[in-house]
Amino acid sequence: MGNGIRDWPRLNRQCFENTKPGGWVEFIDLDLTWTSPDGSLTEEHASKRFNNEFIKASRDTNIESCPGLYLEGWMKDAGFQGVQAEKFVWPVGTWPKEKHLKEVGAWNYLQIMEGLEAFTYALFTRHLGYSKAEVEVICANIRKEMKDPKMHAMFYLHVAYGQKPESPATS
Question: What is the rounded CA–CA span in Å between residue 69 and residue 32?
Answer without folding.
Answer: 10
